[in-house]
Design brief:
Elements: E1 6-16, E2 19-23, E3 29-33, E4 46-53, E5 59-62, E6 72-82, E7 85-89, E8 96-99, E9 112-119, E10 126-129, E11 148-156, E12 160-165, E13 169-174, E14 187-195, E15 201-204, H1 210-226, E16 230-231, H2 239-246, H3 250-262, E17 266-268, E18 273-275
Parallel strand pairs: 13-15
Antiparallel strand pairs: 1-2, 1-4, 2-3, 4-5, 6-7, 6-9, 7-8, 9-10, 11-12, 11-14, 12-13, 14-15, 16-18, 17-18
């Protein structure tokens, strides 16, 4: 079965004047229009290709890369709003519709929104929704502390940044755990900090505990080498300076340079820290 809104592994069946016909081995075919045909191909070749519905709501294949696929979240810009809903740019010829009933807040042309793409069971059309909580569920969240996860930043709150975890759960990164500039729509790695009794997930942007020390020490040392072996920061530097230039707390910085000092990778002076290997 060919799944619209997703990538499918299909076989090239035949070439025609309108394009290539691809099949799934079960009798279902889809057209790859001429303008997307590869320069070289052979009948019987298999290809992974994205399929969606064209302007006539017919399945069609494309070599364009979508910004979102079915059953996932993405950050998309509204290119148009009319009496039917909002229409988002998802990288394909036909825009992705968000019906008014699926808009958490009335969308405006030119603004971007976190949305979920899915197949509407009533119309059998691909649509999007900004009512994110309908598609997030923490009930089956099964993580260990420090597990690495994929994050999509969805909203700024009074406590921190709400994030979508592994494309299915809701999490929160507290402001106290943010040491770099982030914005809605950013994608990044995160680390499970805590799963509460009510299944709320706390996430950090750096590994916790000993692993965090290693990561911070590595970051400081990399910055040090990039700066030709010297950084004008030490125990006397202000937390604001450290946060701005190194994207970590002063406490984390002090522990990191302690690790580097014990490993004899740096010397600490009144002016800052210096790599002991900078002249090697």
């Amino acid at each position: 079965m060919i799944e619209v809104g997703n990538y499918n592994k299909l076989e090239i069946l035949r070439s025609t004047s309108v394009g290539l016909f691809l099949g799934d081995g079960e009798g279902t075919e889809v057209l790859l229009p001429t303008k997307y045909m590869p320069e070289t191909f052979s009948i019987g070749d298999e290809t992974m290709i994205f399929c969606y519905l064209d302007h006539s709501e017919r399945p069609v294949a494309t070599t364009l890369t979508p910004k979102i696929i079915r059953n996932t979240f993405g950050y998309l810009k509204a290119e148009d709003v009319n009496e039917y809903g909002a229409f988002l740019d998802w990288g394909l010829e036909k825009q992705l519709m968000v019906p008014f009933r699926e808009q958490a807040l009335r969308m405006q042309k030119g603004k971007s929104y976190i949305v979920y793409c899915y197949l509407d069971e009533e119309t059998f059309r691909l649509v999007a929704s900004s009512r994110l909580n309908k598609f997030l569920n923490n009930t089956d969240a099964d993580y260990n502390i420090n597990d690495e996860v994929d994050l999509l930043v969805s909203r700024k709150t009074e406590l921190g940044w709400e994030v979508i975890v592994d494309n299915k759960h809701s999490g929160l990164v507290f402001f106290s755990d943010v040491f770099k500039s982030i914005m809605v729509g950013d994608r990044m790695k995160g680390y499970i900090k805590k799963i509460r009794n009510d299944k709320k997930i706390d996430v950090a942007l750096q590994p916790i505990g000993h692993r965090q020390l290693d990561a911070n020490a590595t970051r400081v040392y990399q910055k040090l080498l990039q700066a030709e072996g010297f950084l004008p920061f030490n125990d006397s530097s202000s937390p604001e300076e450290i946060r701005k230039h190194l994207e970590m707390s002063k406490k984390s910085f002090k522990k990191a340079i302690g690790v580097l000092y014990r490993e004899r990778k740096i010397s600490i002076t009144e002016q800052g820290i210096r790599s002991t290997q900078s002249n090697n």
